[in-house]
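queue> pop job 88
queue> type: inverse folding (structure -> sequence)
queue> payload:
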């Protein structure tokens, strides 16, 4: 009671408003001219800045600390290169192309990222998921062109002798092209387009697209794609008629990884042993088992991508571009945070774009950053992208000297390498219970994306995952948490009455918090939750009052008539019940933005409650929210009611409501005296 008396003694003065900074908007033409002048002027310092920005290697390589960095870079580069060779050959099975093209892809990607990447640790090159997506496009185009997908010419003929004597050829850019030629042509053109899309995303600053690829969605996508990869490899595994043995090197490495100084090159050991066994056992001739076939040394002359195929694969390149960029940037930022440096996402997009565009002229297919090889680089002492240069040199040695030795390598062994590399993605199933406990929404997104990718297709699985993730976010904003708030005793703090104890709601004042943006999709949810919380819907209340007034008029007439007939007995009609509150305060601290539908909703809300004698006050609005409300004239013409409707704290709004109610009550009592 003492606090209320103090409040009533305070003079009724409008709360002070914060002074906004005056921002002068420059004319559009002057802005355009200044930007053109800034970007088109040429000077020595600007050329140097552009060069170092486009080629970060020019900036960091002169500062390279040879004694401190060289050992870690050489070791990590050699180890990754050794791992990369068998994987590059194996992942060509997924891409549907010859093994040599995987080596080309790994070589060029490492060189280009060394020159243009901003991450010190990321390993860019051939990646199973990208290879799978490329392979699906290649298989579809081969089928549409009439090639037999089950034909395995690598065990019979040399796939690089593109002659008219081949059993089946098609005309491509005026030249005869057999199955292997057509496959790499499709892979190269879809890779070229993916790189073009990535460069366009960089130019137009569209890197924000990757934010719609949430971590649960990407994990589910990778796990679902792993099932597709397993089914793709089944034909190679089952095509071998002799018993196969389990490859346990990865399990040994995982168990003893704390004791091992460097990762075991299990893939290379398996490839070497299997190649020797296949060669000396003559397995291809005895059992007609599928082998890698002839892998030539050196480089094939560059070739312009088949532009005639672009209209057929233009849409297929979009998910490739987005996924490739998303994995590269996310890995770059993850390892940059771990080691305390920064990366430039836009430059990363340029780098990965050129890692696709340039190699597409050299018979390569889509690349991306790979988590497993990046973690190997990090664990083996990588300091800079010099390690990528070392890895490229290892691949170059294989291309120049050792490639023919892989002729007898069984494809079933390559399939084993691919399947073993999927262990990490498949083990994500063990994390599902933990995901469910941490966030049911994230777990559902993971499951939906995984099943869609595994059961429908990789591209549609990605689309389903993105759409479902957005639907979940929209659902959250349409059904956000709402709460009535109470005051912490003897403080200016107000919190949720359902979440905290020892809170006291202000007398005859409801404080309502809506924890979501207020926009067209959830305005009805906002109104329903508010009406339910305060217990009064203004339109219905106003209708009841009008009916009561109308009934009161009728009963008063009847009462007078009955009084004349029944010696003055008066009939009493229905009596209107007064509301138990006089003010609603909307705590807008959890409303990040509002659209025109939201402002219109608030404007109508203020008016309707005012019609039944209830004030609606706004508290804790951010600056953009205030600007939107002013434009919608929620505060009246020329914002004349702004000082009486808008408050910067909930407590200031509560004090103002008490003052207004007390002043109104005193005015009524004075009127009753007269």
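queue> result:
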């Amino acid at each position: 009671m003492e606090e209320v008396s103090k409040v009533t003694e305070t003079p009724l003065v409008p709360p002070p408003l914060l002074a906004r900074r005056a921002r002068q908007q420059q004319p559009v033409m002057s802005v355009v001219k200044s930007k053109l002048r800034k970007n088109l002027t040429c000077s020595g310092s600007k050329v140097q800045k552009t060069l170092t920005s486009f080629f970060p290697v020019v900036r960091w390589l002169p500062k390279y600390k040879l004694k401190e960095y060289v050992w870690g870079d050489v070791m990590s580069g050699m180890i990754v290169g050794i791992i990369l060779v068998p994987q590059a050959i194996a992942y060509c099975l997924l891409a549907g192309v010859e093994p040599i093209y995987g080596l080309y892809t790994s070589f060029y990607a490492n060189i280009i990222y060394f020159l243009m990447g901003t991450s010190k640790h990321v390993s860019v090159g051939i990646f199973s998921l990208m290879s799978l997506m490329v392979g699906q496009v290649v298989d579809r185009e081969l089928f549409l062109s009439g090639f037999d997908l089950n034909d395995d010419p690598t065990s019979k003929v040399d796939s690089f002798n593109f002659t008219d004597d081949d059993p089946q050829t098609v005309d491509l850019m005026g030249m005869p092209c057999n199955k292997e030629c057509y496959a790499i042509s499709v892979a190269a053109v879809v890779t070229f387009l993916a790189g073009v899309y990535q460069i366009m995303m960089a130019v137009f600053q569209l890197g924000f697209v990757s934010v719609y690829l949430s971590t649960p969605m990407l994990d589910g996508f990778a796990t679902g794609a792993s099932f597709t990869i397993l089914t793709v490899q089944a034909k190679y595994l089952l095509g071998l008629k002799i018993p196969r043995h389990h490859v346990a090197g990865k399990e040994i490495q995982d168990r003893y990884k704390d004791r091992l100084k460097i990762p075991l090159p299990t893939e290379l050991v398996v490839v070497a042993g299997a190649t020797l066994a296949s060669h000396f056992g003559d397995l291809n001739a005895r059992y007609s088992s599928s082998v890698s076939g002839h892998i030539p040394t050196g480089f094939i002359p560059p070739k312009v991508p088949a532009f005639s195929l672009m209209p057929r694969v233009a849409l297929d390149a979009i998910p490739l571009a987005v996924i490739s960029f998303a994995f590269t940037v996310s890995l770059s930022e993850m390892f940059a945070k771990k080691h305390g440096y920064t990366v430039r996402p836009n430059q990363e997009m340029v780098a990965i774009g050129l890692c696709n565009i340039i190699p597409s002229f050299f018979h390569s297919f889509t690349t991306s950053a790979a988590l497993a090889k990046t973690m190997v680089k990090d664990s083996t002492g990588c300091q800079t992208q010099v390690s990528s240069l070392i890895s490229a040199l290892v691949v170059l040695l294989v291309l120049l000297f050792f490639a023919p030795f892989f002729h007898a390598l069984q494809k079933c062994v390559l399939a084993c390498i691919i399947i073993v590399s999927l262990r990490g993605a498949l083990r994500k199933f063990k994390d599902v219970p933990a995901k469910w406990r941490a966030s049911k929404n994230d777990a559902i997104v993971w499951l939906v994306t995984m099943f869609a990718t595994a059961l429908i297709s990789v591209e549609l699985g990605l689309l389903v995952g993105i759409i479902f993730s957005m639907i979940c976010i929209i659902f959250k904003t349409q059904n956000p948490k709402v709460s009535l708030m109470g005051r912490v005793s003897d403080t200016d703090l107000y919190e949720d009455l359902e979440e905290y104890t020892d809170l006291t709601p202000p007398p005859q004042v409801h404080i309502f918090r809506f924890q979501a943006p207020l926009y067209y999709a959830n305005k009805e949810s906002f109104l329903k939750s508010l009406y339910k919380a305060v217990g009064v819907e203004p339109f219905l209340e106003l209708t009841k009052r009008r009916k009561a007034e109308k009934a009161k008029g009728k009963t008063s007439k009847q009462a007078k008539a009955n009084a004349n007939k029944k010696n003055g007995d008066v009939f009493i009609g229905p009596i209107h019940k007064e509301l138990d509150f006089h003010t609603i305060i909307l705590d807008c601290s959890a409303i990040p933005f509002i659209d025109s539908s939201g402002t219109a909703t608030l404007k109508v809300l203020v008016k309707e409650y005012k019609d039944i004698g209830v004030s609606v006050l706004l508290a804790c609005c951010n600056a953009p929210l205030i600007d939107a409300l002013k434009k919608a004239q929620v505060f009246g013409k020329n914002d004349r009611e702004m000082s009486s409707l808008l408050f910067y704290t909930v407590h200031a709004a509560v004090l103002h409501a008490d003052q207004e109610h007390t002043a109104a009550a005193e005015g009524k009592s004075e009127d009753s005296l007269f």
